[in-house]
Amino acid sequence: MNQFPLPQSDHEALPARNPLRELPADVIERIAAGEVVERPVSVVKELVENALDAGAHEVRIEVRGGGLRMIRVIDDGVGIPVEELEHVCLRHTTSKLQVFEDLNHLHSLGFRGEALASIAAVAEITVLSRAQETESADTEQPAHWITWRGGEILQRGQRARLHGTTVTVVDLFHNVPVRLQYTRGARTENGHIVQLVRRYALGYPVVRFHLTIDEHIALQTSGSGNLATAMTELYQLSLDEVLREIALNDSEQHYHIYGFIGNRVLAQSSRQHIAMFVNGRWVQVTALQDALEQGYRNLLPKGKHPVLTIMIEVPPEEVDVNIHPAKTDVHLLYEKSIAAALTQAVRSVLERNPALPETVAFPGPIMVTQRRLSAPRRRGLHVAETADGYHATSADAESAVAIEQLRPLAQLQQAVILAEAPDGSLYLVDQHRAHERIIYEHLRRSSIDEKQREGHAHLLLEPVIVEMKRYEAELLEQRLPLLRGLGIECERFGGRSFLVRSVPGGEGYEQLVAHLQELTEIAAEDSTDWMDHLFINLACHSALKRGRDLSIGEQKTLLNALAQVMAPAVCPHGSPILLHYSRAFLIDKFDW
Ligand code: ADP
Ligand code: MG
């Protein structure tokens, strides 16, 4: 399934490491340079990336005093050979890139060889490391450490340690005025650090992350390798029902998309929980974020954003990573088709799943009481503990309903059909929205397929006059042939008046007469999705109303028609059509 090497998948053994080399001048000139340590959180970023590049299975991060007092990152990766240790803090010295062309098939997060050098210039840094044992190597070898201050070696020594690297940065920005800016803002900086580490933990579910801030556990993951599990650990989700898996490949192998998306219940007030990775690198590509949100279109309330994590794998040569190191934008060769695929994937997943009866509160920040010392309570810090014992598997996820197998039992409040599924679970079906969905999809199909249109106009006994604004009149005039194709016969009646002679035929369409002014205004909207908007409104106004008595036969007919549609779970406005009370729910609530 994964044609492209996933960063998570090659963690069984530690990666081979190339020797440390100073980059040739021509390569230095061609890679985008940038100030990498602008603030404490950027130090954490660089050190975590180095740990991941070293193939660590576990990354432990300790932060004190907003990062100014201390930042320590401990990994169990390949380590640094003792003879290279004293060169790691030299500028443009890296083991990851040798010639410029390597950038085209880069699998590491770093490659500029600048981070440690930049940190060494503004802090005291100690690198303790022991290289991974080669078979012949003496297993009694100790680890070596070197401390630099102001770029100069201050001290060195040896001590025992398993393979891997510990980098400790203290007294950050001691020699630069910018330090003042961060001395009071420890809380803010801690917040950024938690967010940052959370991203890497999402991007590398196979790696065990552990972050403590001033001795408190801020977050930890189990390194289960399962993205859904990582999301539940990081976001304190307790219900797998709220996350849905998406996975797709394009036929030409330009991309592979995988991830979990939260349903409408998880609506958030910021975009903070939209996490996207391209080849393991956290990115912020506005066009792709928009595409994802577009998939939720009417499903989330205005101003709300989803919770989701999406991994995009593309062949390395189709993504440009040589951008400013602090920037998280990337250029993707097939961005447009990836965007379209994302929208479609999100939409189809959400449209097929019935809503759940309970509302699920999205657990926000939870303070961990365990291990809390006497330090004062910090607000603004997102602290989550692990969701013990919870394992989400995509197999638990409920599959789409077989609506044709539903047996209507009764009608509730002349508005909701109660139906039993073969497994004994109960479905509630909103009759108006179900009918709306059926009509909407019919209109959409008939706008594409001419054959479905024949005889689908219902001639009005009395034509209706509608009045347009001037700019609307022009647009409407141009669209008259399209409207005719939908069964709406309309003609200009001089000036800005139009005469509507027919509406699309079929049950319930007489109800449209009262809404012709509104409908023609939509048909004259200056937007690219006016037609979809029109379909939604036509469907809404002609659908069965709530308050209409339905016989069991009529209920069955409606359910049969709903079984035929593409998206039976949500109405065109994005509201739920189906509510599902599973057997498990009944057993649990009745305590059977
Ligand atoms: P880059 O990551 O761009 O190569 P850095 O300045 O971050 O540059 O690191 C310089 C070099 O130090 C790396 O190329 C790598 O060889 C070595 N190094 C740094 N951190 C680690 C680590 N945690 N484990 C193993 N090697 C490391
Ligand atoms: Mg690096």
Q: Can you walk through the features of this model?
A:
The protein is of the alpha+beta class and 592 residues long. Helices cover 29% and strands 22% of the residues. The protein is built from 15 helices and 24 strands. The chain has helices at 25-30, 40-53, 82-85, 115-122, 178-183, 186-203, 227-235, 286-295, 335-352, 431-448, 470-485, 516-523, 530-542, 552-564, 583-590, and strands at 21-22, 58-64, 70-75, 93-94, 124-130, 143-149, 152-159, 164-170, 208-213, 216-220, 243-249, 256-262, 274-278, 281-283, 308-313, 319-320, 331-332, 407-412, 416-420, 426-430, 457-467, 490-492, 497-504, 578-581. The protein has an eight-stranded mixed beta sheet, with helices on one face. Strands 11-12-15-13-14 form a five-stranded mixed beta sheet, with helices on both faces. The site of magnesium ion has 5 residues, from helix 2.
**End-to-end Cα distance:** 42 Å
Helical segment tally?
A: 15
Q: Portion of residues in helices?
A: 25-40%
Q: For the CA atoms, what is the radius of gyration?
A: 30 Å
Strand order of the largest sheet: 7-6-5-8-3-2-9-10
Average pLDDT value? 81
